[in-house]
């Protein structure tokens, strides 16, 4: 493993992180609605699960999925149902006032973990990037560096999101647009879940 390869991995990974998806939507919504601490905690959970999928890819979990397809199918279905469940909750709460209740950091963290843990395609994406960027036979030190690098990148990005969107102006803007933003987010989450549910790969 070389620095050039690690930089290439980071460029592809960075593009994937900033693209709209279930993880990004959850980070934005939590940061604005529940505050900085909950937003950071959500990002820590999202990053931990995402880096966990990269570690799994490096350790060869794709081989297990290939040998036992039902394990991948079961995980994919569970993840899809969880995203659809989040979509329903978001839609139902769209017209409700936000209130002053805060989301405990441990719950925000667990929610972040579950969103990214419920998407095994994150592991397949990581596996594809790893195969293209890195040579075969990565040693234990290389595996640790790649995984910790992924974790740091995710945590840095989501912490920046939480800091930027948890300010008073961002919260005021969110409250004004909450009904529409929540319905859009619910629709996107539902589409992501349904796509995951019906996709063959």
Structural commentary:
This protein has 201 residues and is an all-alpha fold. The protein has one domain (3-10, 33-198). 83% of the residues lie in helices and 0% in strands. It has helices spanning 3-18, 22-34, 36-59, 61-67, 69-92, 105-117, 121-133, 140-165, 168-198. α1 (3-18) runs antiparallel to α7, α2 runs antiparallel to α3 (36-59) and α2 (22-34) runs antiparallel to α9 (168-198). The model has no long low-confidence stretch (mean pLDDT 82).
Radius of gyration: 17 Å
Q: Can you count the beta strands?
A: 0
Count of runs of 4 or more consecutive helical residues:
9
Q: What structural class do the secondary elements suggest? A: mainly alpha
Order of helices and strands: HHHHHHHHH
- Regions with little confidence, pLDDT below 50 for 5+ residues: none
Largest sheet: none
Q: What is the number of domains?
A: 1
**Helix residue percentage:** over 70%
Please state roughly what percent of the residues sit in beta strands, choosing from under 5%, 5-15%, 15-25%, 25-35%, 35-45% or over 45%: under 5%
Tertiary shape: globular
Mean residue pLDDT = 82
| Distance linking N and C termini | 29 Å
């Amino acid at each position: 493993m070389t620095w050039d390869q690690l930089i290439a991995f980071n460029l592809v990974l960075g593009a994937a992180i900033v693209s709209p998806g279930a993880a990004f939507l959850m980070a934005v919504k939590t940061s604005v609605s529940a505050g900085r601490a909950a937003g950071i905690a959500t990002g820590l959970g999202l990053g931990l699960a995402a880096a966990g999928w990269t570690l799994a890819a490096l350790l060869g979990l794709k081989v297990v999925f290939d040998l036992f397809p039902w394990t991948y199918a079961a995980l994919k279905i569970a993840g899809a149902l969880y995203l659809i469940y989040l979509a329903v909750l978001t839609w139902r709460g769209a017209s409700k006032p936000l209130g002053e209740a805060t989301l405990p950091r441990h719950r925000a963290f667990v929610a972040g973990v579950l969103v990214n843990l419920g998407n095994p395609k994150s592991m397949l994406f990581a596996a594809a990037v790893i195969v293209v960027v890195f040579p075969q036979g990565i040693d234990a030190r290389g595996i640790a560096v790649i995984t910790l690098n992924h974790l740091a990148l995710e945590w840095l990005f989501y912490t920046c999101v939480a800091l930027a969107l948890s300010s008073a102006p961002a919260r005021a803007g969110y409250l004004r647009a909450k009904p529409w933003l929540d319905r859009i987010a619910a629709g996107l989450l539902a589409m992501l879940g349904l796509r995951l549910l019906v996709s063959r790969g």
